[in-house]
Amino acid sequence: MAMFFKRLSRATTINSLINAFGGHPKSGYSNYGVPFGAIAAISGGTSYLYYFSSPDLVHLDQIKEAESERVALNPDKWIEFKLQDTARVSHNSQLFRFSFEPTKKLGLDVASCILTRYTPISDPDSNGYFDLLIKVYPEGKMSQHFASLKPGDAVEVKGPIEKLRYTPNMKKHIGMIAGGTGITPMLQVIEAILKNPHDNTKVSLLYANVSLDDILLKQKLDILAATHPNLKIFYTVG
């Protein structure tokens, strides 16, 4: 420790510490009202952390930077995604596929959504695209905007916005209740469970809709239930 302070005294002058805090040498205090002795102690502590930890911190920063370059989403920045294609799912619902650089993943956690307040139904590990299932309401400003989009049009997206950070086997049995497009976050969790052979979680889903025609992704859900004994689905309408 003594050797560290000797190195610190050679590397840092009191004036540089004062200037860093916006003070003046003759006043005895910085512009922030902190005595010079306190500044030296605070700065010494910071230097101590940096001196002994900087290689690890730099390494962590490099890892985070490398990871951020491999994902398409950014939780702090709006990013444009181009509409690749659309498909009608029911009489009032459409599937929208947006594309991005195919070498990247979306960067979505299970189960989280993106700003525009929709939860993608595509696999979070899919490269180069993500899918949104949207019910188009006559008076819905956002859904009508999506319905007016044509392939090649762009939408700004920010995320992920975490709803639930799912981890394998976090619960023995999960009960789900969903209605309409509320199936999207449920499907995201269901698929994460079913594609993991080491996840033994059981899922029971009660899916409510106005009519049979309003049941979204029924064929897909039925196939998943038929091929995975740990998934049970119950439909209700009316």
TrEMBL record:
For this protein, the record's CDD domains field holds: cyt_b5_reduct_like
Q: Which InterPro entries match?
A: CBR-like (IPR001834), Cbr1-like_FAD-bd_dom (IPR008333), FAD-bd_FR_type (IPR017927), FNR_nucleotide-bd (IPR039261), OxRdtase_FAD/NAD-bd (IPR001433), Riboflavin_synthase-like_b-brl (IPR017938)
What positions does the entry give for FAD binding? Y118, L133, K135, K141, M142, S143, T184
The Gene Ontology terms for molecular function here are: cytochrome-b5 reductase activity, acting on NADH
Cellular compartments annotated: Mitochondrion
Q: Report the cofactors.
A: FAD
Among PROSITE patterns, the record links this protein to:
FAD_FR
Q: Which keywords fit this entry according to its UniProt record?
A: FAD, Flavoprotein, Mitochondrion, NAD, Oxidoreductase
Q: What are the EC numbers?
A: 1.6.2.2
Instruction: Give the main localization category.
Output: mitochondrion
Pfam families the record matches: FAD_binding_6 (PF00970), NAD_binding_1 (PF00175)
What SUPFAM superfamilies does its record include? Answer: Ferredoxin reductase-like, C-terminal NADP-linked domain, Riboflavin synthase domain-like
- A single cellular component GO annotation: mitochondrion
- Which regions span the lipid bilayer? none
Every FAD-binding FR-type domain range: 56-167
Q: Which family is annotated?
A: Belongs to the flavoprotein pyridine nucleotide cytochrome reductase family.
Q: What is this protein called?
A: cytochrome-b5 reductase
